Amino acid sequence: MTQLSDSNQAWLLASRPDGEPAKENFRLVEQPIPSIKKGEMLLRTAYLSLDPYMRGRMDDTKSYAPPAQLDQPMVGGTVSQVVESQHPDFKNGDWVLAGSGWQRYAVSDGTGVAKIGDLPHPSWALGILGMPGFTAYMGLMDIGQPKAGETLVVAAATGPVGATAGQLGKLKGCHVVGVAGGEEKCRYAIEKLGFSACIDHHREDFAEQLANACPDGIDIYFENVGGKVFDAVFPLLNTAARVPVCGLVSTYNSGKTLPAGPDRTPQILSGILKRRIRLQGFIIFQDYGDRYPEFLQAMTPLVEQQKIHYREHMIDGLENAPQAFFDMLKGKNFGKTVVKVSE
């Protein structure tokens, strides 16, 4: 059996934030490594995925998934290795995709666990070949339905979802315009990802710059952000435009009260009606879970042939997970945020 550490380090959800999360919402503990019984296996976390959806799971509100539980390890997807098994379908040494959360070790009965085989980059199962890549693929292909010559605008363009959606749009012949925070990210979107343009949303003339980059209007807007980016996009949406909505990260820390300001709902609904805009939210595994093999079959060769580029923002050490999470919510990451928990 693989040598184990002396204890199981874990970040527990200590309290629920009202607005922006903080370090005091988490508590780091050292616990005994759990034992297993027949039908179970012990998983050691190698990589932990940090994703925007986790902010919503910290709230005790009705949603598409149950809230994270207080005084339990914070939820999260992991790439883990089986270090001890009494499960008939898994053996010691297997690499798996699991939901072990923010901890070094976890016991599993196999529910929701999938073998990932011999990947050259195991952590990529949390990104380009995992949930973010799957989200980009299905959101763009099924809801966005890109066609050659159309204009696609992608928010959070250098994140794992946005970067993938934009590159897929380029392969489909779209004029792709990214939106990102900062000149460095915009240069990357153009020079590495092949976008036609990328607009820095920090610019005072952001809305004007976006309009100039989309002279024929916008046919598809891949929504990851909301807020002022959506405000600039909406007037530019063409008749029969499609808007896959997979995230609204600009609002995740807004708290429980409605934002101040005028009610623009009638104006937005009127635009949706008059221009026959298709605006559709989706939850990737609830809506498309049975199509994951289809995604892997399509995406794997694109990644292997480097037709799709991918960037990770790797953080070393589980102790740094909360700060990395806060930074990601503020857009300070560059690429898919992954925490390296163990070798």
TrEMBL record:
It holds the Pfam family ADH_zinc_N. The keyword Ligase does not apply. It comes from Pantoea rodasii. CDD domains: PGDH. The keyword Ligase does not apply. Residues 22-339 form the Enoyl reductase (ER) domain. InterPro entries: ADH-like_C, ADH_N_2, ER, GroES-like_sf, MDR_fam, NAD(P)-bd_dom_sf. Keywords: Oxidoreductase. Transmembrane segments: none annotated. This is NADP-dependent oxidoreductase. GO terms for molecular function: oxidoreductase activity, acting on the CH-CH group of donors, NAD or NADP as acceptor. SMART domains: PKS_ER.
